[in-house]
Fold this protein.
Amino acid sequence: MDIADIAAKALKKIATAKGKSMAKKGDAPVIAKAEPIRMKNSTDEFFNAGFACKEVMPADVTAKKYYIAGYRMDHPVTGVNDPLTVRAMWLDVKDNGGIVMVSVDVIGLTGFEVNRIRESLSDFTNQTGCKLINISCTHSHASIDTVGYWGRLMPPQSGVDKEYMDMLCAAIKEVCIKAYENRKEGKMYVGSVYVPDAVDTGRASVDDRLTRFRFVPNDGSDETWFLNFGAHPNTMGGDCTEVSADYPYYLREAINKVQPVNVLFSVGPIASININDKLSEDRKERTKLGGELLAKAAFSIDNDELMPAEITVVHQPYYAPIENYVLAFMFILKLCNARAYPCKDSSLGLALLTEMNYIKIGTQKILTLGGETFAENVDGKYFDATNSGTGIGPEVNAKPLREIANDDKLIIFGVTNDMTGYMVPTNNVVLHPTQAYLSSYRDNLDRNHYHETNGLSAQITHVVAGLFEDIIKRTEG
């Protein structure tokens, strides 16, 4: 038994003890099934939408120690390649409330922080009739640590800077309010285009469809686009020590060189999908070219559909069982903020309080997930037994999300309203036999499985699919 085996045993023991301790205090509160909220403009086809943006760079970014998020611990910031921003879009259908869609250039935000922001906006939601504040993180691996995982290694210390988090949360609050104040009447269109050249093709499935929500104000002022695409913003690379929003920055810049547009961005199913390395061997150049390629694709969309002025929202909190004792240990150490509860469906006795949201803008369906899902979980193109990491066929996997929605245009907003890690298809979950969740392991085809070490559990895909199926049955009949 080596030191890693001993560490794995110890971490699991600590996490299990925490679960038992929490169980003695009673069961977790029951979470009610959320009722669908339907907003509809019965008089015309117009939405109201507003946009606001704010830069969120600390003035002392190089004078004070900040940590780059996304690759390894103890990786300090040394400079700035491009600024991080927060962007918000208010959307309503006239007199019966609306929603705010936020896009933040950070690796992620825990549900704890998201709810902290929502609580700070309680007066705003009451005054405006806002039904949901939805916060999507672009998941840049060259942003400042906002979760805590990437701080000092020895002794372990959170990478989150409290002053920066206070500034970030205040900025998100500010843009939500300003987006509402800036609202105008107009029409909403949704279109999409496939961009296969933008991503690598090393997996059974990729989601290379770029979807564009396009709000066109009646007064002829700047349009607002919300773009969604499934590629990891990790293009700057693990050696990068300069803060960057990664390819979403260059995507927005390239669009605005052609036309003044308010641009927001969210990631789709990004697990194991990256910007195509054939674009350039140089990481920074590849990042720029990837953004420019997607910008060109966004302008090429020619299948826009006018959306009826309707919005449906189902905001559903739920408990996600935790089997990953390393992540549980990080919660216990308070390296990141999380809301853990007792859980009988987990071997550790622990679950994370998180959420998913089903949103329909016009006819376009959106599912928000806190984690990074594999595209297979969305489109059902699972590995067969020969190619899966376990030698097991796809019959053990969860029902694909687009099949549940009965809609092959369903899009995923990943890393949204929480930071819950990877969602690996069941027949491709491969854990180290003695160091599960602590060390990666190579499967029967010699592929490295590191995603499992950054996910809550092997059962998370079934939990998500089951909950989503119930939401769809209650909302869509």
Notes: The first helix runs from residue 3 to 23. The mean pLDDT is 95. The chain is about 25% helix and 25% strand. The two ends are 54 Å apart (CA to CA).
